[in-house]
Amino acid sequence: MIGKLTGRIDYRAGDHVLIDVRGVGYLVFCSERTLAALPGVGEAVTLYTDLLVREDLMQLYGFTSLAEKEWHRLLCSVQGVGAKVSLAILGALGPDGVSRAIALGDWASVKAAKGVGPKTAQRIVLDLKDKAPGVMAMGGTITRAQDASADDVVEPAPTPDRPRAAPAAGQGDTTAQADALSALGNLGYGPGDAAAAVARAAGEDPGAGTTELIRAALKLLAPKG
């Protein structure tokens, strides 16, 4: 099993990249969102990967975080969802968006992805709702593949025309959500209720830190009356 690749991008296409790893080229398929986040041709890159093996097919799929890879694995476990549909969903929503949509039971957001009908979207939410808290909790412990050290690739030094890449957007928010989820669990809230509250709070205030998310989630979880 090939779980991660570190090398240089040889070329980019509409749905995949070719990564040169010490002279061996790996064709890696990615979502539109992941492709947009990758550096240019000739630049160093690290991707977590999932290898699909069938009787007549072997394909690698690449992801910038373990959370994205885990959602791909879970999405593909749902009846009627293949790798192409999974990448379409991740491309439309991103791993954080998928977590929020499934935690909130928001199948309409899932349906917005290309090639996903209402029945499939509802099945995804129903089948994976209990899995959302676990994937959301990964955000506080994982490191994006793009930030991992690459011992076999020398990163080009930043220059005025080649600035150092900025941290990926949303990374801090993911950690805040994971920390808030953990805190709510310590307070005795069930994983499903906690995940839904954190997802809703994060959707209403995308830039909120851990403390703000906990406060907002506690308000949502407070008994009404």
TrEMBL record:
<dbReference type="InterPro" id="IPR013849">
    <property type="entry name" value="DNA_helicase_Holl-junc_RuvA_I"/>
</dbReference>
<dbReference type="GO" id="GO:0000400">
    <property type="term" value="F:four-way junction DNA binding"/>
</dbReference>
<feature type="domain" description="Helix-hairpin-helix DNA-binding motif class 1">
    <location>
        <begin position="73"/>
        <end position="92"/>
    </location>
</feature>
<dbReference type="InterPro" id="IPR003583">
    <property type="entry name" value="Hlx-hairpin-Hlx_DNA-bd_motif"/>
</dbReference>
<keyword id="KW-0227">DNA damage</keyword>
<dbReference type="GO" id="GO:0006281">
    <property type="term" value="P:DNA repair"/>
</dbReference>
<comment type="function">
    <text>The RuvA-RuvB-RuvC complex processes Holliday junction (HJ) DNA during genetic recombination and DNA repair, while the RuvA-RuvB complex plays an important role in the rescue of blocked DNA replication forks via replication fork reversal (RFR). RuvA specifically binds to HJ cruciform DNA, conferring on it an open structure. The RuvB hexamer acts as an ATP-dependent pump, pulling dsDNA into and through the RuvAB complex. HJ branch migration allows RuvC to scan DNA until it finds its consensus sequence, where it cleaves and resolves the cruciform DNA.</text>
</comment>
<dbReference type="GO" id="GO:0005737">
    <property type="term" value="C:cytoplasm"/>
</dbReference>
<protein>
    <recommendedName>
        <fullName>Holliday junction branch migration complex subunit RuvA</fullName>
    </recommendedName>
</protein>
<keyword id="KW-0347">Helicase</keyword>
<dbReference type="Pfam" id="PF14520">
    <property type="entry name" value="HHH_5"/>
</dbReference>
<feature type="region of interest" description="Domain I">
    <location>
        <begin position="1"/>
        <end position="64"/>
    </location>
</feature>
<feature type="region of interest" description="Domain III">
    <location>
        <begin position="174"/>
        <end position="225"/>
    </location>
</feature>
<feature type="domain" description="Helix-hairpin-helix DNA-binding motif class 1">
    <location>
        <begin position="108"/>
        <end position="127"/>
    </location>
</feature>
<keyword id="KW-0547">Nucleotide-binding</keyword>
<keyword id="KW-0234">DNA repair</keyword>
<keyword id="KW-0067">ATP-binding</keyword>
<dbReference type="GO" id="GO:0009378">
    <property type="term" value="F:four-way junction helicase activity"/>
</dbReference>
<comment type="subunit">
    <text>Homotetramer. Forms an RuvA(8)-RuvB(12)-Holliday junction (HJ) complex. HJ DNA is sandwiched between 2 RuvA tetramers; dsDNA enters through RuvA and exits via RuvB. An RuvB hexamer assembles on each DNA strand where it exits the tetramer. Each RuvB hexamer is contacted by two RuvA subunits (via domain III) on 2 adjacent RuvB subunits; this complex drives branch migration. In the full resolvosome a probable DNA-RuvA(4)-RuvB(12)-RuvC(2) complex forms which resolves the HJ.</text>
</comment>
<dbReference type="GO" id="GO:0009379">
    <property type="term" value="C:Holliday junction helicase complex"/>
</dbReference>
<dbReference type="InterPro" id="IPR036267">
    <property type="entry name" value="RuvA_C_sf"/>
</dbReference>
<dbReference type="InterPro" id="IPR012340">
    <property type="entry name" value="NA-bd_OB-fold"/>
</dbReference>
<dbReference type="GO" id="GO:0005524">
    <property type="term" value="F:ATP binding"/>
</dbReference>
<dbReference type="InterPro" id="IPR010994">
    <property type="entry name" value="RuvA_2-like"/>
</dbReference>
<feature type="region of interest" description="Disordered">
    <location>
        <begin position="147"/>
        <end position="173"/>
    </location>
</feature>
<dbReference type="Pfam" id="PF07499">
    <property type="entry name" value="RuvA_C"/>
</dbReference>
<dbReference type="GO" id="GO:0006310">
    <property type="term" value="P:DNA recombination"/>
</dbReference>
<dbReference type="InterPro" id="IPR011114">
    <property type="entry name" value="RuvA_C"/>
</dbReference>
<keyword id="KW-0233">DNA recombination</keyword>
<dbReference type="Pfam" id="PF01330">
    <property type="entry name" value="RuvA_N"/>
</dbReference>
<keyword id="KW-0963">Cytoplasm</keyword>
<dbReference type="InterPro" id="IPR000085">
    <property type="entry name" value="RuvA"/>
</dbReference>
<comment type="similarity">
    <text>Belongs to the RuvA family.</text>
</comment>
<keyword id="KW-0238">DNA-binding</keyword>
<keyword id="KW-0378">Hydrolase</keyword>
<dbReference type="GO" id="GO:0048476">
    <property type="term" value="C:Holliday junction resolvase complex"/>
</dbReference>
